[in-house]
Design a protein that fits this description.
The protein is an alpha/beta fold and 363 residues long. The protein has 2 domains: 3-134, 3-Layer(aba) Sandwich (Rossmann fold), CATH 3.40.50.450; 155-361, Vaccinia Virus protein VP39 (Rossmann fold, 3-Layer(aba) Sandwich), CATH 3.40.50. The protein is built from 12 helices and 12 strands. It has helices at 16-30, 52-64, 82-93, 110-115, 123-134, 136-170, 175-183, 197-203, 216-226, 270-283, 303-312, 330-336; strands at residues 3-8, 35-38, 68-72, 97-100, 118-120, 188-191, 209-213, 232-236, 256-262, 284-293, 342-347, 356-361. The strands form 2 sheets. It has a 7-stranded mixed beta sheet, sandwiched between helices. β1 (3-8), α1 and β2 (35-38) form a beta-alpha-beta unit. The protein is elongated and about 75 Å long. It binds S-adenosylmethionine (SAM). S-adenosylmethionine (SAM) binds at residues 146, 150, 161, 192-194, 197-198, 212-215, 218, 238-240, 262-264, 267.
């Protein structure tokens, strides 16, 4: 499937040669990605104030139909007007925004931080991000990187989880333990069970627990911690290509009373988040519960955080670790979950360190 990338940049008062050069550069850099570039500026007459409304409306229509808004804000001292309007619209249209900021101070601006899905220093970084997050081969590569990362931290993972939680509990925030205590019962499925920290808690409330985990070193740590327990099954598998949970025809082999998805969804690009929600809906009994918790902000200890840190410190950029800076918004996910036939019945306060929600699968 070819992606359409709407390209926005400085236009007014920019010499024609510069515009043409920028267009060519963008086309060249995106050429390997099977993208269609939507470049409204290319065919548009300039300085036509009397047709301004028609021009702007036509551009916004094109933007609405695009998969990505790539906006180049890197021209120093330029007063961007059109691009800011377009960013606001892209946000409303739910078109992801990738902003190239160069050496300007845009990377420090609150609204750019809040609404850009990714802030890139250069066109090259932006294109690499598009490749990783929006193309199939990029996503596969990304999943491999993630896999390797979790393999490499498996032996430390439990300590990392504990340190984070203990730190928060001291500040009176062990909400996730309370959440499990309040809602978990019956048959349980945990997605991305990691080194088994939550799995252990879940076993206190159910004797039918299944944990699935992609990284075998992680799984080994969980087995070391939990040992053989009646009613507990830990499965080494990929949630997205899973034969244990789904039949060949895509139907769930079993429906669960309660599914736990802690610190998992934020690792995924958006399309996979949607796919994950769809699969989770299929696996939940009608009337069953889905418990989702994640990091409200990207932390440096996390996988995504490593990518972000490296990106900020560009001199030491290790290409392998550019991960999604796209910040995961648990609240936004809760807002859209009705599409998958869930109804949110409980959720964290806005100041929670680890935002969470509980959703019930409708009949
Ligand atoms: C951030 S860790 C969280 C682990 C655990 N939920 C916790 O909170 O301690 C995310 C886990 O998801 C696993 N994971 C990532 N992608 C997966 C996939 N497609 N299928 C199953 N597990 C996956 C990773 O290997 C990792 O162990």
């Amino acid at each position: 499937m070819s992606l359409s990338v709407y390209y926005g940049r400085a236009m007014d008062a920019v010499p024609d040669e510069e515009l043409i050069e920028a267009d060519q550069k963008c086309a060249r850099m995106l050429s390997g990605l099977a993208c269609k570039i939507v470049n409204p500026a290319a065919s548009r007459p300039r300085n036509v104030a009397h047709e301004a409304y028609e021009i702007a409306a036509r551009d916004l229509e094109l933007l609405k139909k695009s998969d990505i808004f790539l906006v180049d804000l890197s021209r120093p001292d330029y007063r961007y007007v059109g691009c800011v309007f377009e960013m606001a619209h892209a946000h409303i249209y739910k078109v992801p925004i990738i902003a190239i900021v160069g050496n300007t101070d845009f990377s420090e601006r609150i609204f750019i931080h809040a609404y850009a899905d990714f802030i890139a220093g250069t066109m090259r970084e932006a294109v690499e991000y598009i490749e990783r997050v929006y193309t199939e081969h990029g996503q596969e590569k990304q999943m491999r990187v993630m896999h390797e990362y979790f393999d490499s931290i498996a032996s430390r993972h439990r300590t990392i989880v504990q340190d984070n939680l203990v730190g928060n509990r001291l500040r009176g925030k062990d909400e996730l333990h309370q959440l499990i205590q309040k809602y978990v019962s019956g048959s349980i499925l945990e997605i991305g069970s990691g080194s088994g920290y939550w799995t252990e808690q879940l076993c206190n409330f159910s004797n039918d627990v299944v944990g699935i985990e992609l990284s075998s070193p992680m799984l080994k740590q969980a087995i070391k911690l939990l040992g053989e327990r009646e009613g507990l099954k830990l499965i080494h598998t990929n949630f997205f290509s899973d034969k244990h949970l789904f039949s060949k025809t895509g139907n769930a082999r079993k429906h669960y009373d309660c599914i736990i998805v802690f610190f998992f969804l934020s690792l995924l690009p958006r399309q996979l988040q949607q796919q994950a929600m769809h699969r989770l809906s299929k696996l939940t009994k009608s009337g069953g519960l889905l418990l989702v918790a994640d990091s409200g902000q990207v932390e440096h200890e996390t996988f995504a955080g490593i990518g972000r840190k490296k990106l900020q410190n560009r001199k030491n950029l290790n290409e392998e670790f550019i991960i999604y800076k796209e910040h995961f918004n648990t609240r936004a996910l809760a807002d859209t979950i009705s599409i998958e036939n869930f109804n949110v019945i409980d959720e964290s306060q806005s100041n929670s360190q680890y935002p969470w929600f509980v959703a019930r699968r409708l009949k």
